[in-house]
Automatic annotation (TrEMBL):
InterPro entries: AKR (IPR020471), Aldo/ket_reductase_CS (IPR018170), NAD(P)_OxRdtase_dom_sf (IPR036812), NADP_OxRdtase_dom (IPR023210). This is Aldo/keto reductase. The keyword Oxidoreductase applies. Belongs to the aldo/keto reductase family. Keywords: NADP, Oxidoreductase. Residues 24-263 form the NADP-dependent oxidoreductase domain. Residues 261-283 are annotated as: Disordered. PANTHER family: 2,5-DIKETO-D-GLUCONIC ACID REDUCTASE, NADP-DEPENDENT OXIDOREDUCTASE DOMAIN-CONTAINING PROTEIN. Gene3D superfamilies: NADP-dependent oxidoreductase domain.
Length: 283
């Protein structure tokens, strides 16, 4: 089928739909409707976080969809204030109760916060290992981890993260972190895949879009999936939610792929914070 989203295998034997729907910055009051629309269009993977404040509405929309729980892949993430193991355990329970689910498909450490908690994210990771062992998190992973953070987990922990969710788009191709992931069987999830819209009027991207008869957003999302990354663009506009889903019935040739990759601006292409420095703890 032209619009089938591939399932890709994680290092723990589970699978994840390569395209999902992100709900960052969607107001709780708008979240259930946006997720309902996404599920109706065919998305089967929702990316939320404790920090987004809309886990309850994600759960509500999944239940209202009439789909079996097993048909929808749900990710959430540990908030920055809860890295200490006791706090992480309580926070994880609050995620499950907000979602009204007995498990999540994937649970992530949202940020490494290397300047907080005496630099200790390893005890936090070992706490996520508990959630996986007891079945309440089918898979576990990290987000915004840089190569030294991943190396430290490899040296001090037992479980290799299934994914690392990092900022990736044509202005920040983030090749070193992606390469570490592919060498160590950690899938890359690309957050802000269209740089929150900032790459969409880039002349190169507009030109490629015209050549293939697609929109700039579709071309950029297609570039990600051909690189093997997982994406979950966010939108509350029904037409765009649908547009972002229609990326499996065309391909970009090598030249087009290279043209998009060539737009990389390195560190100056970031739209979000630098994970080595980010230390925000919500009040
Ligand atoms: P995004 O790159 O998905 O861009 C979203 C914005 O782009 C929308 O607000 C909309 O204005 C615009 N847009 C969407 N589709 C469009 C289309 N077809 N045409 C034109 N404009 C369009 O940005 P994002 O929401 O920051 O990232 C996606 C998801 O990644 C989030 O919802 C969240 O789930 C995740 N995320 C994770 C982290 C993290 O630290 N782990 C950080 C940011 C985002």
């Amino acid at each position: 089928m032209a619009h089938t989203v591939p399932d890709i295998s994680l290092n723990d034997g589970n699978t994840i739909p390569q395209l999902g729907f992100g709900v960052y910055q969607i107001e709780p009051k708008d979240t259930a409707e946006a997720v309902r629309r996404a599920l109706e269009i065919g998305y089967r993977h929702i990316d939320t976080a404790q920090m987004y404040g809309n886990e309850a509405e994600v759960g509500e929309a999944v239940r209202a969809s009439g789909l079996d729980r097993g048909e929808v892949f749900v990710t959430s993430k540990l908030n920055n204030g809860f890295h200490r193991p006791e706090d992480a355990r309580r926070a994880f329970e609050s995620t499950l109760s907000a979602l009204k689910m007995d498990h999540v498909d994937l649970f992530l450490i949202h940020w490494p916060l290397p300047t907080r908690y005496d630099g200790d994210f390893v005890s936090t990771w070992k706490t996520l290992e508990e959630f996986q062992r007891d079945g309440r998190a089918r898979s576990i992973g990290v987000s915004n981890f840089q190569v030294p953070h991943l190396e430290r987990l490899a040296a001090e922990a037992d479980v290799v993260p299934a994914v690392n969710q990092i900022e990736v788009h044509p202005y920040l191709t983030n090749e070193q972190v992606r390469a570490y992931g592919s060498e160590h069987n950690i899938l890359t999830e690309a957050w802000s895949p269209i740089a929150q819209g900032r790459v969409l009027d880039d002349p190169t991207i507009v030109d490629v879009a015209e050549q293939v008869g697609r929109t700039p957003a579709q071309v950029v999302l297609r570039w990600h999936v051909q690189r093997g990354d997982i994406v979950f663009p966010k939108s509350t506009t029904p037409k765009r939610i649908e547009e972002n889903f229609r990326i499996f019935d065309f391909t970009l040739d090598d030249t087009a792929m290279e043209r998009l990759s060539g737009l990389d601006r390195g560190e100056s292409g970031r739209t979000g914070p630098n994970p080595d420095e980010f230390d925000y703890i919500p009040a």
